[in-house]
Design a protein that fits this description.
alpha/beta; TIM Barrel; six-stranded parallel sheet; 8 helices
């Protein structure tokens, strides 16, 4: 993978809190070798700490806490042999469904830092029990972090749902690649809007493979990303892992 030369004015981020770099678990990397290759590429961007977050979806990627930790330990051992000088942590990206609600009740969740809980929604329709889920998460002491809110197009118009979620204390993690229109033009417009009003708490690579690394360089160089990054209280490098 080619060395990536970033502009000196690019915002610096040392901690990535969203990626799919554990093999055999979801639609991310296919091998430990690929995982290490992607980690090396991200290190060239300046990343030093990584929270790897495989999907947990009962209907598609029904990963258990035990299975995730087992593969994570193997990856850590391999990274150690590579002498990469990076810090690895693990959590998960939970799909909001009935199974997720059961895991909350059982307290069998993988979180990062101070009990931050990364979760995602359906891309086709808003879940009926979203508000209930937020209440349960918070009542159990979790800090809900909504993954890539800009990608839920059904929330774009009107934007009241975003305001409501922020008022409920939900943190927003946007994907850096949204800035370059990687997902779509409407998503690009929404991520710019969320940044403009100061709604962004975390940014993530959401890296699944090399295709995301190539797109990441373009997004980092986006004028909007540079302009708005410093106007938001980005927590990536402020949290203790």
């Amino acid at each position: 993978m080619a060395i990536i030369n970033l502009l000196t004015t690019t915002p610096k981020i040392k901690t990535d809190i969203h990626s799919h770099l554990l093999p055999f678990l979801d639609d991310g990397v296919d091998s430990y070798e690929e995982s290490i290759s992607i980690l090396k590429a991200l290190k060239e961007f300046g990343y030093e700490r990584f929270v790897i977050t495989p999907h947990v979806m009962f209907h598609k990627y029904n990963n258990s806490k035990h299975d995730i930790l087992k593969i994570f330990e193997e990856l850590k051992n391999r990274v150690l042999k590579e002498s990469m000088d990076i810090e690895l942590h693990v959590a998960a990206e939970y799909y909001l469904d009935e199974h997720f609600m059961e895991l909350i009740e059982k307290e069998e969740l993988l979180t990062f830092s101070d009990n931050y809980l990364l979760f995602e929604l359906s891309f086709s329709a808003s879940p009926l029990f979203l508000n209930d889920a937020i209440f349960v998460m918070q009542s159990k002491g979790y800090k809900p972090v909504l993954a890539h809110p800009e990608r839920y197009v059904y929330m774009h118009n009107p934007v009241d749902k975003y305001i409501d979620l922020k008022n409920k204390g939900v943190l927003f993690q946007v994907n850096i690649n949204s800035f370059d229109g990687y997902y779509s033009k409407p998503v690009k417009q929404m991520v710019e809007r969320l940044f403009k009003v100061g709604y962004v708490d975390f940014v993530g690579s959401d890296a699944h493979g090399e295709r995301h690394i190539e797109a990441l360089k373009k997004s980092y160089e986006s004028s909007y990303f540079k302009k708005y990054f410093k106007k938001n209280n980005i927590l990536n490098d402020k949290i203790k892992l």
